[in-house]
Structure formats: C-alpha cells, structure tokens
Specification:
By secondary structure, the protein is α/β, with parallel strands linked by helices. It has a single domain, classed as 2-Layer Sandwich (Transcription Regulator spoIIAA). The protein has helices at 24-36, 57-69, 81-89, 100-106, 112-115; strands at residues 2-7, 10-15, 17-19, 41-45, 49-52, 73-77, 96-97.
Length: 116
C-alpha cells in the first residue's frame, strides 16, 4: 500500500492500490513521520495507484499547504489518466509530474544559462 525510499535529500512515498477514506489515516501517519524527520522535499508517487477517492483531493491539497507552511514541498507524480482526471475534476491546480524522476528534477530548476 505505502512504501518509502530516499533519493538524496528527497523522500519518495509510493502509494499503490487504492487511496480512500479507509486508509487515508495510514497515509497521513506516514507523511507526519516524514515531516517530523525534517524531510523538506517529498514526492508522492501515484504510479501504482489504481483509485483515488475524489473526496480526498481537498485533504491532499491541505496537506501540501501544511508542508509548504513548514518550509517543505510535496510534488505528486506518476498518476494515470484516471487519477489525473479525478484531481482535475476536483480543482487540483498543482502539476502532476509524469514520473518520479521528473518530479525530483523539478526540485532543482536550471538557470537560464544552463538551458542554453
């Protein structure tokens, strides 16, 4: 259901199966543990997520804001079209990165000189 791995100073939380009202507390507990350890950058990997309860989208946004207020950042990655459509339908305005790698790279944007 939930897995965690470290990529340098970024923590990747893998969410697989279904994320709904029945297991959102487990998700929150894991995220709270991560925040207690002062991990500032988190990627939530939805690559293996088959269903997201639409009622949880506002809760996810609230948690993202909470992390930002503490000086951190959460990025979502890897959602399929079904998950992406649920997020969009519920007004999720943040970027859903196509892969964990894309989300990790986005934490360190390139300068203008590096792009050229």
């Amino acid at each position: 259901m939930f897995g965690v791995k470290q990529l340098n100073d970024i923590l990747v939380m893998d969410v697989s199966g279904e994320l709904g009202l029945s297991n959102v507390r487990q998700f929150d507990t894991l995220l709270t543990q991560v925040l207690r350890e002062r991990v500032g950058r988190v990627v939530v990997d939805f690559s293996n997520l088959s269903h997201l309860d639409y009622k949880l989208v506002p809760h996810l946004v609230d948690r993202m804001i909470e992390v930002q207020c503490q000086g951190g950042e959460i990025k979502l990655a890897g959602g399929n079209h079904y998950i992406s459509n649920i997020l969009k339908a519920m007004g999720f305005e943040e970027e859903l990165y196509p892969s964990v790698e894309d989300a990790v790279i986005s934490f360190t944007p390139m300068s203008e000189e590096e792009w050229q």
